[in-house]
Design brief:
Oligomer: heterodimer
Number of domains of chain A: 2
Strand order of the largest sheet of chain A: 2-1-5-3-4
CATH architecture of the largest domain in chain A: Roll
Low-confidence stretches of chain B: none
Bound molecules: FE2/S2 (inorganic) cluster
Shape of chain B: globular
Number of strands of chain B: 37
Strand order of the largest sheet of chain B: 3-7-1-16-13-14-15
Distance between the termini of chain B: 77 Å
Helix content of chain B: 25-40%
CATH topology of the domain at 416-420 and 433-479 and 646-800 in chain B: Aldehyde Oxidoreductase, domain 4
Structural class of chain B: alpha+beta
Mean pLDDT of chain A: 96
Strand content of chain B: 25-35%
Largest interface: A-B, 59 and 57 residues
Number of helices of chain A: 5
Chain lengths: 165, 800
Amino acid sequence: MSKKLVSMTINGNKVEEAVEPRTLLIHFLREKLNLTGAHIGCETSHCGACTVDIDGESVKSCTCLAVQCEGADIKTVEGLASGGVLHAVQEGFYKEHGLQCGFCTPGMLMRAYRLLQENPDPTEEEIRVGMSGNLCRCTGYQNIVKAVQYASRKLREPATDTVAA
Amino acid sequence: MNAPLKEREQALMGIGESRLRKEDARFIQGKGNYVDDVKMPGMLHMDIVRSPLAHARIKRINKEAALAMPGVHAVLTADDLKPLKLHWMPTLAGDVQAVLADEKVVFQMQEVAIVIADDRYIAADAVEAVEVEYEELPVVINPFDALKPDAPVIREDLAGKTEGAHGARTHHNHIFTWEAGDKSSADAAFANAPVTVKQDMFYPRVHPCPLETCGCVASFDPVRGELTTYITSQAPHVVRTVVSMLSGIPESKVRIISPDIGGGFGNKVGVYPGYVCAIVASIVLGRPVKWVEDRIENLSSTAFARDYHMSGELAATPDGKITGLRVEVVADHGAFDACADPTKFPAGMFHIVSGSYDIPAAHCSVKGVYTNKAPGGVAYRCSFRVTEAVYLIERMVDVLAQKLGIDKAEIRARNFIRKDQFPYTSAFGFEYDSGDYHTALQKVLDAVDYKALRAEQAAKRADPNSPTLMGIGLVTFTEVVGAGPSKMCDILGVGMFDSCEIRVHPTGSAIARMGTITQGQGHQTTYAQIIATELGIPSEVIQVEEGDTSTAPYGLGTYGSRSTPVAGAAIALAARKIHAKARKIAAHLLEVAEGDLEWEVDRFKVRGDDSRFKTMKDISWAAYNQPPEGLEPGLEAVHYYDPPNFTYPFGIYLCVVDIDKATGETKIRRFYALDDCGTRINPMIIDGQIHGGLTEGFAVAMGQLLSFDEQGNIQGNSLMDYFVPTAVETPKWETDYTVTPSPHHPLGAKGVAESPHVGSIPTFTSAIVDALSHLGVTHVDMPHTAYRTWKELKRLGVAQ
Ligand code: FES
Ligand code: FES
């Protein structure tokens, strides 16, 4: 199958690759770029394990083609921590035991990252609704809610202490 | 060196501490290593051609078009596997299963052929290009129909076999009939009983549906004759044994690695045709082959759970004292008996069905039946068939309470095994290790103000304008976990022990390797805590490794809540061997007799003299540097733990629901879960496990269902239809605990992760039925979806 050149920015790095037009973004990230943080739980856009951030929106990367992302600015879980310091959502999931098997976690983190920009101080209800595109089979969500609340507090009142990546 | 005791203890982060998880750092940064993340040079991709029909003869398979596609390396069918004798494989339940359909298909989505290609896209295209011609055969999906004399023959390969792995077969679709307890004494209890109740109930077919599906990367090195396979397995050592037996490759040349696992819940215990095919393909092609099933394949073909048609009876006195229990089950096993139970127990631990109650006479029988459905019958977040058993007995106690007009808490208290009766031998022969059910029940009733809830319910019932029906569910369950004593439990002849190897390094850090494998339970965190407490080494410097059969000692894996009861004990005892040697070294270093030493948190000290001591760190160095004469150098130990008994965690769960009279929608107003898992190693992780188990229980009770139409078409096999609750539907959980240590476990721990699943499911049903009980309803089958509940309300004349 003939290939098409795509270029985009991923976690701040310029990426240019030739891909088959039918390549899903999730496969492009995982197989071509070795960014295996985003996972595949369904390939039918139900589970959210493949969630990444594209141009300021949460997107299930099994639902879009790599070629659709021409010129896009993409962030994946691998780009969350910066300067050797965990992002507040990562810290929240760690401190509040918001993960178990970890398979949903990259998608959860990327969704929480965007949710807290859309709504910096969400109520519990808003967190539950805001995260409802992401399924978790392990945690029962209770600690995920706490993790997002932790991150929300931290982002609003940046404390001095951080957790090293 | 002489920091206060408390400080030294805390520095260890040992048993009882809510230590943050060691595994999180990699998962929150996208650095996990799951099977689908594994990449090998020259790796090919496998995909599977599956049957669209539930029962049909295969007339012809045409591979040509697929083979002609660029990038396709091979298309293999049963005929290609035949010369290798790999077209069939043994199951863990003593049956055989077709690896690729041999002449006919017996369930929809059965594996018919495999395609190996350069990448997953080409493989998927090639699957479409394989032409299979079928001749349809009559389908049977209901196990009662399957047992009729003229029912279609599902397993032609078993023609003439009147003896199965578990005794006589009396019909061509009959697998086994298994019994426990004493029939004559149970019958006698019923013959004389002033009160009896009977209830039929169906525990529907569901699926564990972990977020990561099953898959593997098989890599055969033709030069060395070695096979390495990364696999989503809850039991890698068992897989190694099975693979070696099947392939003829010596077990020493087979390396099975379970890397990070994205949840298991019983789905990843079995050995599936896809794994075998990928391994064969790698051997045939001499290149690594990856196979990862998609979600629809996962829900359709690997590991369903339950599918038990149960009928229970209780005999009792007029004041509600149970005198007898009888249970009959027809178990739908699908087209192959591929249950993952200890070999001698075709219905697992179903005979825990007498529950938390002192029932003098009991009998149960389970009849396994073939139907045209996928094989499986795994323990979905439970110890083998314990979920079904707990559901049955808890429903029956409610039914009895209702008949006698006794409150459901009161009738339970009247029948509980009393604290002073432990160890207690049940009518089925289980020896319950410890428990204090009355105290736990009272704690829950007080916490929720049970009296006030009942008063509120009465007021609602009296008010014709109330838009909702209120129900209170109560369950007081006991589980049997930690399989198990090898005199009773084995898998394919291997005793169900587990193991631990600990090495303490010269500088005082340590590594432990285990036969289990974590799938989210946090073993790397909790196992280190056990060693920290036992050896006085900070958990921070203890590495825990599992899942690689080339480095870890043999173990039976993680399922049936066996990690803490079995492997946890192995850790403690391996550590105690090291402790004993450390004492000898300390005595030598301090020039005193061993008897003059006492252990204190992280050191041996001379009795009564705080200034003369050797810390574990000092001793570690000495072990490699100046061991006492006659003692071999080094500081390590291995322990294989064969448990003397199972453990019996228990819990008291209470749930309040409000059902909308008009729509049947059910709101879980409150769910209070008290668990007693004995000694608590990491309370934070225990709570997390309980939240997760309750949520899976909620999913099963309120919505999960794998159903089939008359043609055997599976319905609801994608996440569009199969219910996996989001954060919105999931209730908020309240947790509580009591601590009744297991007397026979070295740490007193019993295991916890499955209790919330096992215990919560009947709690939801109990609450739903409770809301309708004043209308004469004694039981409603799951799942309690709004539609099904609405239909019930309509039948009762409540909804329009
Ligand atoms: S894999 Fe994309 S939503 Fe499930
Ligand atoms: S942590 Fe396992 S699916 Fe969420």
